[in-house]
Specification:
about 5% strand; 2 strands; mainly alpha; 7 helices
Length: about 240
């Protein structure tokens, strides 16, 4: 179980460690979209936990949004995304200013150049703009994909901890806070999960983190596979 936590955390850290996306742009800076959160299914469930000796499943609740905002790992992921988004916006503005200056200089040359010579320079400028725009679009798509992947990796890191808590408490189901209409505070395990995740992050050896950074996909696939004695995550 503990190995699964470490591997999943390493997968998240691998995402943070990826080089920032160099940006190019030809227009106003594109606003960075809000961080998405994976959808959760609408399900029917009891409002509060019921003792397992009555034959009713013990239900736990976790607030994934709060866990990501307050945990060390979640904050690290969010800071990395914020920094990358700010870098993208700054580079967009810088390149836009450079292209405006080039266009103005080209316009000034028009009066002193023959039509053929000016047309050649204008075509070269248009080609440059189109090339920069294509590169911009590709890099923005890559950044958007990273933003969408981050919550999934965070959930993957928390999952082994939630399975551990379920075994300790006799729980049968863990629900996302967003699908719970009402519940008792006693079934909310968010703070417990955050504390354990923080402890796992702080105790993770640097060597394990480095090895995971070399192959994050392999680390993620290992973390996805539950052990024989741990509850399996729902596919819903």
């Amino acid at each position: 179980m503990r190995r699964g936590v470490v591997i999943a955390i390493s997968g998240c850290l691998a995402l943070v460690a990826q080089p920032g996306l160099a940006q190019t742009a030809t227009g106003p800076a594109t606003p960075v979209p809000p961080l998405p959160t994976p959808p959760t299914p609408a399900v029917d469930f009891p409002i509060a936990a019921t003792p397992s000796d009555r034959g009713v499943p013990q239900i736990l609740v976790v607030d994934f949004t709060r866990a990501m905002e307050t945990s060390l790992l979640g904050q690290q992921l969010l800071r990395a995304l914020e920094a990358e988004g700010e870098a993208i916006a700054a580079e967009n503005r810088e390149i836009e200013a450079e292209l405006i200056q080039e266009e103005l200089a080209l316009t000034e040359q028009r009066a002193t150049l023959e039509a053929a010579a000016f047309r050649e320079l204008a075509n070269a400028f248009d080609t440059k703009v189109q090339t920069l725009r294509a590169a911009q679009d590709a890099k923005e798509r890559a950044f958007t994909a990273k933003r969408e992947e981050t919550p999934r990796l965070f959930h993957q890191a928390v999952l082994p901890i939630l399975q551990e808590i379920m075994l300790e408490t006799g729980g049968s189901i863990v629900l996302d806070r967003r699908v719970a209409v009402a519940f008792l505070s006693s079934v909310d395990v968010t703070d417990i999960a955050v504390a354990r995740l923080d402890a796992a992050v702080q105790s993770q050896p640097q060597t394990e983190s480095d090895s995971a950074l070399d192959s994050p996909d392999e680390a993620a696939s290992e973390a996805d596979a539950p052990s024989d004695d741990t509850p399996a995550a729902s596919d819903d």
